[in-house]
């Protein structure tokens, strides 16, 4: 709430902590002391009765803990205690093409089709001009953690021929191999918070609308965009790192402990 004092300045009145946030803190402490990674939590009715709260309040607290990566909701299983976040390097000081030897992404498919208008504008291609769309996935410890769409204009892979493969994994590898023949000048990345659409949710084993981190990377060669990557990471699972020494953890104490 906002109030004005006698000299006319505006001050913020203290707001009590929301009930769901207090419950989130209590639940977080319970996860640390009573449950192990992968263990299924009791159902919402039992949890609400244990803590003496309405189920709506409980759902808010559970959703917050899921966003923080402490819990996972799994189809046919329920709500489980999540493992620690996986450190995923999304940028280093070295500029490298996707698909190089140390790249852990797995190509799954490739198609030649016109992309969305936003992607076409980013690539500098015509709205109706087909581009190679390579679909890749990132799996860590047997768990899908990210999905990527890599858009490559035909001009960036002039040596690619239909002989390599018309589609599928072989075609994806051929596009990546040909892309690496160019001289990469630099790459630029941006990160934003988003929500999983139907396709991403299915591929990442999440529910539609689950929080995700979207990393968009432009690969530039000869002064133009040679490839555009749109990678979607599970926000509950991944801790993105940047730079050669980016794998840093910060511990703030038990209430806001980095997972």
UniProtKB/TrEMBL annotation:
Pfam families: GntR, UTRA
UniProt keyword Nucleus, yes or no: no
Keywords carried by this UniProt record: DNA-binding, Transcription, Transcription regulation
UniProt-listed SUPFAM superfamilies: Chorismate lyase-like (SSF64288), Winged helix' DNA-binding domain (SSF46785)
Entry keyword annotation includes DNA-binding: yes
Family annotation (InterPro entries): Bact_HTH_transcr_reg, Chorismate_lyase_/UTRA_dom_sf, Tscrpt_reg_HTH_GntR, UTRA, WH-like_DNA-bd_sf, WH_DNA-bd_sf
Regions annotated as coiled coil: none
Protein name: GntR family transcriptional regulator
Biological source species: Streptomyces marokkonensis
């Amino acid at each position: 709430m906002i109030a004005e004092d006698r000299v006319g300045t505006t001050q913020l009145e203290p707001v009590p902590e929301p009930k769901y946030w207090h419950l989130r803190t209590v639940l977080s402490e319970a996860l640390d002391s009573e449950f192990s990674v992968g263990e299924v939590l009791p159902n919402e009715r039992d949890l609400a009765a244990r803590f003496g709260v309405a189920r709506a309040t409980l759902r808010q607290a559970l959703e917050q803990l899921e966003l923080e990566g402490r819990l996972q909701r799994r189809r046919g299983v329920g709500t489980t205690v999540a493992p620690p976040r996986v450190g995923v390097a999304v940028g280093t000081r070295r500029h490298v093409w996707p698909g190089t030897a140390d790249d852990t992404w797995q190509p799954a498919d490739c198609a030649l089709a016109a992309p969305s208008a936003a992607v076409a504008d980013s690539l500098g291609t015509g709205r109706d001009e087909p581009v190679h769309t390579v679909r890749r996935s990132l799996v860590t410890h047997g768990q899908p953690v990210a999905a990527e769409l890599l858009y490559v204009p035909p001009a960036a892979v002039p040596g690619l021929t239909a002989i390599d493969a018309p589609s599928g994994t072989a075609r994806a590898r051929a596009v990546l191999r040909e892309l690496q023949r160019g001289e990469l000048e630099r790459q630029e990345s941006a990160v934003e918070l988003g929500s999983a659409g139907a396709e991403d949710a299915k591929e990442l084993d999440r529910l539609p609308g689950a929080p995700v981190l979207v990393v968009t990377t432009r690969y530039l060669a000869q002064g133009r965009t040679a490839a555009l990557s749109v990678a979607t990471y599970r926000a509950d699972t991944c801790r993105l790192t940047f730079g050669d020494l980016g794998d840093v953890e910060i511990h703030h104490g038990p209430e806001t402990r980095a997972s």
